[in-house]
Automatic annotation (TrEMBL):
It comes from Streptomyces javensis. It is an enzyme of class 1 (oxidoreductase). Residues 892-904 have a biased composition (Low complexity). It holds the Pfam family Ribonuc_red_lgC. This is Vitamin B12-dependent ribonucleotide reductase. It catalyses: a 2'-deoxyribonucleoside 5'-diphosphate + [thioredoxin]-disulfide + H2O = a ribonucleoside 5'-diphosphate + [thioredoxin]-dithiol. Keywords: Cobalamin, Cobalt, Disulfide bond, DNA synthesis, Nucleotide-binding, Oxidoreductase. The keyword Flavoprotein does not apply. Its cofactor is adenosylcob(III)alamin. Belongs to the ribonucleoside diphosphate reductase class-2 family. Residues 1-24, 882-910 are annotated as: Disordered. Residues 158-697 form the Ribonucleotide reductase large subunit C-terminal domain. Catalyzes the reduction of ribonucleotides to deoxyribonucleotides. May function to provide a pool of deoxyribonucleotide precursors for DNA repair during oxygen limitation and/or for immediate growth after restoration of oxygen.
Length: 955
């Protein structure tokens, strides 16, 4: 993109900035004269979201308009979370067009008002390109943008805030108020309490100070109260304390003691499950805690020497402690309850662009945003899978050129937003406008690595991740320098120019020193190198518009909005996912990235099909037919038979960290069997590898967790027996809200159609849906009516074999050849449908009496004279009673979660997290969503609900 002279900027120029110019905006995806909306197919859908626990409807909006390629999940989440206006009122948004226009037009107008564009034509290209990228899920702004921009309410665009608290009661009470206002708006905040005097120091009156830990109680209670006031996400907060604070041991032990209290109260009969009536009596549960360590302390740990705790008033040591013992205490606490995390102070401030304006002392709740106190950061994330392409020869490549152009577009929009944004406090607004911190990042890294045949924990995977991160941040600062030439540098730049340019050189040097691995990452590294050269050249000339450019956020809700398989920097959760279907229902599917990975690794279509079928049945790649053991690592996930090692997570963070302005929101997951020594190793290696912050989570280290099946059984057993009343009439047995199903496409005599058959959790067909012809036609209407009649009959107890005997051999057009190898000829559509249902759901003996056999059985009859399988063969037909086709059936009669069939898993699960737990026999203590009751899953250091998009953090 080139620059040209334009009119003066209004309201955005910094002191001493040069004559204003305007940006020439280049087209990336759009065509002159064609609006992006006119290039996609739009359709109307009904969004009805229920609470799976009681079936109640918690959101409903019908007839919303979205592109036909948007998934059910993305449509549900955008409609329920981001559409503005009262539901049912004429003012309620009902189309994705309205949502995107509301945001894009605000950005365009602010850009024009503040002199960002060279001409009206450039403003229009900016409008169209931003619209295209949002429409096609190439990137997304963070949630506050969708909540607030273009509405009558304050236009807050930031998700991340850092507050300041000093050693005075006025400041402490101000902290409570500011934090509460941020929570009220659905965002999160972090702060460092180390300026507050310790309980070991004296007040001016002569008494002992309360210490920061005591003041944490009040803030925690406030956060808990606001959380319970009806918000769909908990109050997200981060509390940091320096390692040399005299109260650091008490800070480390706060949550450990509360966890012991939870255990004692639970054993005494109190309801201490998540969301339980008595859990609110426990303190310090609404914050993430982190200890801020420095190099002096870590070197003392390494050498086994002592370390001084210092007075907050004088800075003098008041107590000497064993550094290694304190470090051990941190690891023991994290082992017991996952807190505290760790932040590496000297590493953080080594990469600080504005040290003359103050040190970086804290982070936002998810630990990715780190900058000055009383500041904020707005986020946006790119969908990396949108840039993976096949060249003319069928080889994969990452489109670095297009990626860089999109980064330039997004950074421009993010900087424009600061011109019109509102902030929760005046101090935060002043600091943010003066330093213009941005947080561009990405999602779908785990999916990208798998699709390109890279193991997450591999040199090749880390090289590609590092290259993309370097190109993203380098391009961001290049655009920041170009913006500085157009509308001026950030206000604090002049004072911090030397430090800012030093950090740019550090990034560039890290890029030059990085190891190149293969044909995918090498071109990206080359593009990144060119970008960093431009950064240094343009920055020397014009300075920079932004003190910070990039972070790696959790991308929870916006990741679902973009239909991403993985969040932020995370690997894939598991190879088998839980997917919602249009029209209701759900099914489990093998990740779409698996076939792409297999093709990248050189497997043929037949081999890919066999391996995918194995994964669908077993949930892992172990012993998959034809898959080389050397390739197993490519399919390692966060959970499962072959889960990524904790150090694999740490090494990936280290690969991306040198190329980020901020830090990374990520939790290092550890098995329940992990030791304190292993946590010490991770915390120590994190420091050695140059990571800015990390946290660990050991499986099942928390007591409070969702109500278990065992407790439900005990409650049922305790209830007195009541004589049952027998009704001598048909009773309808309805299917549960979540039920397993199988959709079959078929062709009969050239006529195409689809059949979806859903089952009961225990056994038996429960409903059938048939789709043929266009919606609204006579044939489609008759098929709908026929489906309802059959489904109601099944639910009132009409045996499937009765329908099969009545409808098979019925003759009418269309009839003839089918595309089903088991039913090669059909005398009508209903003849085919009920033969297929018999094969899928009736036991062998029953359908054999009706003369219905599979192709394999007919072949066996020709060879042996018998339709039945030999004793050493699996009775697939018998298993089909409880397991539809292509879904794994139980291998044993055991009742362990590992032995459950895929169909049973799908019946019981309501999210991918629950499906994985059922398949693997896990009992993870992720919370249930407060909005819809679905088990949430981790996204960075937060939790995400796949059902409704609610998050526990600040993204």
């Amino acid at each position: 993109m080139t620059e040209t002279t334009s009119g003066p900027a209004r309201g955005s120029r910094s002191k001493g900035s040069k004559a204003n110019k305007g940006l020439r905006i280049e087209r990336i995806h759009t065509t002159p004269g064609v609006h992006p909306y006119d290039e996609v197919v739009w359709e109307r859908r009904d969004v009805v979201m229920t609470n799976w626990r009681d079936g109640s409807i918690n959101f409903e909006q019908r007839g919303v308009e979205f592109p036909d390629f948007w998934s059910v999940n993305a449509v549900n989440i955008v409609t329920s979370k981001y559409f503005r206006g009262a539901v049912g009122s004429p003012d309620r948004e009902a189309s994705l067009k309205q949502l995107i226009d509301r945001v894009v037009r605000t950005y365009r107008k602010a850009g024009e008002d503040n002199g960002y564009f060279a001409s009206p034509a450039d403003a229009e290209i900016f409008d169209h390109e931003l619209t295209y990228a949002l429409l096609h899920q190439v990137f997304s702004f963070n949630s506050p943008v969708w909540f607030n921009v273009g509405t009558k309410q304050p236009q807050q665009v930031s998700a991340c805030f850092i507050l300041f608290v000093d050693d005075s009661m006025e400041s402490i009470l101000g902290w409570y108020k500011e934090e509460g206002m941020i929570f009220k708006g659905g965002s999160g905040a972090g702060l460092n309490l180390s300026r507050i005097r310790s309980s070991k120091e004296l007040l001016s009156s002569g008494g002992n100070a309360s210490g920061p830990v005591s003041f944490m109680r009040g803030a925690d209670a406030s956060a808990g109260t606001i959380k319970s006031g009806g918000a769909t996400r908990r109050a997200a907060k981060m509390v940091v304390l320096d390692v040399d604070h005299p109260d650091v041991e008490a800070f480390i032990e706060t949550k450990v003691k509360e966890e012991e209290k939870i255990r004692a109260l639970r054993d005494a009969g109190f309801d201490m499950d998540l969301g339980g009536d008595d859990i609110t009596s426990v303190q310090y549960q609404n914050a993430n805690n982190s200890v801020r360590v420095n190099d002096t302390f870590m070197k003392a740990v390494e050498s086994g020497s002592s370390f001084g705790l210092r007075s907050r008033l004088t800075g003098e040591p008041i107590e000497e402690i064993d550094a290694k013992a304190l470090f051990r205490k941190m690891a023991e606490a994290a082992w017991a309850c996952a807190d505290p995390g760790i932040q590496y102070d000297d590493t953080i401030n080594h990469w600080h662009t504005s040290p003359e304006s103050g040190r970086i002392t804290a982070s936002n709740p998810c630990s990715e945003y780190m900058h000055l106190d009383n500041s904020s950061c707005n986020l946006a994330s790119l969908n990396l899978m949108k840039f993976l392409q096949d060249d003319d020869a069928g080889n994969q490549r990452f489109d670095a050129e297009r990626f860089a152009k999109v980064v330039e577009l997004v950074i421009t929009a993010m900087d424009i937003s600061i011109c019109f944004a509102d902030f929760p406090t005046e101090k935060i607004g002043e600091t943010t406008r003066a330093f213009r911190q941005l947080g561009i990042g990405y999602a779908n890294l785990g999916a990208l690595l798998m699709a390109t045949g890279h193991a997450y924990d591999s040199d090749g995977g880390r090289a590609l991740a590092g290259a993309i991160t370097s190109l993203m941040t380098g391009t961001s600062y290049k655009r920041s320098a170009e913006l500085a030439a157009v509308v001026g540098t950030y206000d604090g730049y002049a004072r911090n120019a030397d430090a800012h340019k030093r950090v740019m050189r550090q990034h560039s040097d890290a890029n030059a020193a990085a190891k190149r691995m293969d044909d995918l990452d090498t071109p990206v590294w080359a593009a990144a190198t060119e970008a960093w050269q431009d950064v240094l050249r343009l920055g020397e000339k014009s300075g920079y518009r932004n003190a910070q450019a990039s972070v790696l956020a959790p991308t929870g809700t916006i990741g679902l909005m973009m239909d991403c398989d993985t969040t932020g920097v995370e690997p894939d959760l598991a190879l088998v996912k839980f997917k919602k279907l249009v029209g209701g229902g759900s099914m489990q599917i093998v990740n779409n990235t698996v076939p792409k990975a297999l093709k990248r690794l050189g497997y043929q279509d037949e081999q890919v099909e066999a391996i995918v079928a194995h994964i669908a049945e077993h949930g892992n790649v172990i012993d998959a037919p034809g898959l080389k053991p050397a390739h197993y690592e490519v399919f390692d996930c966060a959970m499962g038979e072959r889960s990524i090692s904790p150090m694999g997570h740490v090494r990936m963070m280290a690969a991306a960290q040198p190329f980020l302005s901020g830090a990374i929101s990520k939790t290092v997951n550890m098995p329940e069997s992990a030791t304190v020594e292993e946590i010490e190793e991770i915390y120590f290696e994190g420091w050695k590898l140059g990571i800015k912050a990390l946290a660990i989570y050991r499986d099942n280290c928390k007591v409070g967790q969702p109500l278990s099946a065992k407790k439900k059984e005990e409650k049922e057993q305790a209830e007195p027996e009541v004589e049952k009343v027998v009704e001598y009439r048909p009773v309808r047995r309805r299917l549960p809200k979540g039920r397993p199903g199988i959709t079959t496409s078929f062709t009969v005599g050239g006529a195409e159609g689809y059949m979806t058959a859903n089952s009961y959790p225990d056994d038996g067909l429960g409903e059938v849906f048939l789709k043929m012809s266009k919606q609204g036609s006579t044939l489609a209407g008759m098929m709908d009516a026929f489906s309802i009649a059959v489904s109601v009959g099944l639910q009132y107890g009409v045996p499937l074999e009765t329908y099969v005997s009545k409808f098979t051999n019925m003759r009418f057009e269309p009839a003839g050849m089918t595309d089903d190898p088991d039913v090669r000829m059909a005398q009508s559509i209903v003849d085919y449908i009920f033969r297929r249902l018999a094969l899928d759901f009736l036991p062998f003996e029953t359908r054999s009496a009706l003369g219905i056999h599979s192709a394999e059985e007919r072949q066996r009859h020709l060879e042996t004279g018998s339709y039945e399988a030999a004793d050493d063969e699996v009775d697939v037909e018998g298993l089909a009673q409880s397991a539809p086709r292509h879904v794994a059936a139980p291998k044993s009669s055991g009742s362990s979660p590992q032995s459950r069939s895929g169909s049973e898993s799908a019946k019981e699960a309501h999210s991918s997290a629950e499906l994985v737990e059922i398949q693997l026999g896990l009992n993870a203590d992720a919370p249930l969503c407060f909005s819809c009751g679905t088990k949430m899953r981790r996204a960075g250091s937060c939790y995400l609900c796949e059902g409704c998009g609610s998050t526990s953090g600040c993204s």
